[in-house]
Amino acid sequence: MNRLFIKIGLIACACLLFASALGMAADTQTLAEVRIGDSKGDWGLPNPYHHYQRGPGYVRMSWIFDTLIWKDKNGEIPALASSWSYDPATHTYTFRLNPKAKWHDGKPVTSKDVAFTFAYFKKFPYSWAPVGYVQQVETPDDATAVVTLAKPFAPFLTNIAGTMPVLPRHIWEKVTDPKSFVEPEAFIGSGPYRFKDFNKTQGSYLFEAFDDYYLGRPLAKRVIYIRTGKPLASLSTGQIDVSNIQPDMAEPLQKKGLTIISDSYGWNKKLMINHRKAPLNDKRFRQALAWAIDRQELIDKAHRGFGAPASLGLLPTDHPMYNPATPAYPHSTAKAREILESLGYVKGADGFYAKDGNPLQLETLSSSLTVGGEQTPDRDGEILKKQLEEAGIRINLVQLESSTTDARVVKWDFDLAVSGHGGLAGDPIALNDYIRPDVAPSFVNGARYGDNAELLALLEAHVKEMDPAKRKELVFRIQEIYATDLPAISLYYPDSRAAYNPAKGIRWFFTQGGISGRGVPIPQNKMALVAR
Amino acid sequence: MRLFTRMTWMPALSAYLLTALALVYASFALPRLLPGDAFIAMYGGGHVAMEAQEEAKIRASARYNAASESFTQYLGRLGRLDWGTSTAYETPVFGLIMHALPWTLLLMGTAHLLSLGLGFILGVEAAWRYDSVPDRLLTSVMTFLEGIPELGSGVLLLLVFALWLGWFPAAGGETVYSGLSPWERTLDILHHLVLPLATLVLAYLPGNALLSRAAMLMTLRQPFMLTAAAKGLPPWRRRYAHAARCALLPVVTRLGLRLAGMLTGVLVVESIHSYPGLGTLLFQAVSLRDLPLISGIALFSSLGVLTVALTLERTYQYLDPRLKQQRVTLHAC
Prior knowledge:
heterodimer; A: alpha+beta; Dipeptide-binding Protein, domain 3; six-stranded mixed sheet; four-stranded mixed sheet; 15 helices; about 30% helix; about 25% strand; B: mainly alpha; about 0% strand; globular
């Protein structure tokens, strides 16, 4: 009998707990808090030497560390530097700093911090802001920094002044090993938010407002990053306030009252080609591949129409320096077959080509990719296989996990690989990374193409060309050559969307040209949370 | 009563020790077979490129050379109770596991207990009412549920309860940085626990219910049940105190066998619900090719399962004293 009562009691307690858990709302929604959703969660500790190398890692660091110049909804704005000027004769930039800028520990930001940062990044390189060209930095007074370059560097204002976080000298001058410096002082910056916590197992970040921020009052007391694999459900329940979403999710979320924003094209799907291996080392063969691919079909079948065909010159079609005369390859299987036949391939009875008895067969690697920080499955491989086989090329499609694919691409152990990357909306200096052969071996998104001397010379030249019109000409020519040589084939730009809850009063936006000079396509610009 | 004699525990213990050693080797060797390496996993898809010499410097650092450790060094490390440092998180592996373990234990433990208790009671009651409408209804429902994988039921529950109805959160173990009082925090954790727990219970319950029902049916036919009825005992006492105790044995055995698949089963559910347990941690460790962490989790969970199996074996002897001389039984009395 006693046992029965105990059982009943336990069941009653369980029901009570269950009922109260149901009734309790998990979220206390006030403007005191803004929650951002992300599917990966862990992007490293938010300082220059610890954040992961992808866009979301940089963005988390940017909440804490300010740069000299920044971008808001409408374009370039003064940040730590309230004004700046350039002297072409001496390749010198003069920055006048904002006197109100303060570090999180209360000390003022001076030109000595700026000079120190340039020197420190020279000693301990930070790949997002390469300061190799900087010859010296003078500080005539606490509010002026004069930066002299060894050579003219066209993207200096966007990619260094607009990307390089300024470090506090009084903290970092004693640090000899920045990679192992993870004390709380390592996260003292001059940005609108202070770093409070990063929970590795939960994949969550906590930032708290820095009320003395010199550009304006932060609009939310706390910024929290939450890991969620289902942004649609999390946005609907109010668990998060903003997140990148798949374009299909836009309609149901709009019906629930959320605002949807779209980005310009900054991320492309690309077919990586092993141009060191026959038959892919012949550019006519690569052109045949381009003719055989129907980019619109890829968009329609794998992405339900949400996307636009890519320019084969690598820069997106809405980029300020896009070349409208870039060679295009409108889908034509006939033209592809014509080129293959001119190269000596003979069509067999089954419709597939062979040369000297060797069948034409290529291995294509395919894997799920990270788009703007979110993992998306990849179906393009199957459609590409169908299109290329229609042109008579046998394709052996191998689906692999992304790190495995990357490892093989690094070692040049592949024929074709379906891949993708962003960073195209920023300054065209990104083209250098995505083309040149001497880039670090682990940079799998680069074509590592050194066969065209004119192309390499142009890549060096456009970076030093300060005249915007002349530089545009050079970049136009780069796109033309790239689209003719085709070391890699850009396929399409998927539509990029984000949704946010407008009831909170924050207007999130996609930064023009992406966040920082490297074009990060994420709508988490800190200026959305600063009252100006 | 002596729970075990020397005759029974010596060979059993040595078998377990051998298994433990084999598991240590497997946890060392298998992760090293993964293609790709931690450096590419971390820097490969990077947004910006480094210079070649900078990459060479980082590649040569100790952090990215965990794969060069030999088995003897690994054993030595474990002997010092040093589980190693995670390549990706740069924190001790043991700390990371201890942070994630409570979440997995909460989820797994509650799921197994609930499905064991509920499944057992449902099976017993159904067997008692053999061939009636409730019994047939239960059998068909349980068979149907048995066929639904956790992947499907998890997403379905999320769709209905998180997206449409909005009753439960779609992700997480708790509301992070909420600053709630301990009581509110407990309720919050329970609130987040409901959907993953429901997914797991729906996965484990049918098997337990059907097995208990089958075991119960075999037990009910035994002569001693007739004796119990003749003694005039009330039905619920006959069901539970007499028959169910025998039917419990195969169910507990099944629990022991199912525990081996604990980590893989919970990995799917944790990923779907973004639950911060060992499953999610292992998934991320594999994506990042974090060898020390993968080895650590694999070793920890396999040794954990071994320990629980050993404990369960002792429990059998308590449940059924006849087992002092035997090993494990798969059938009821």
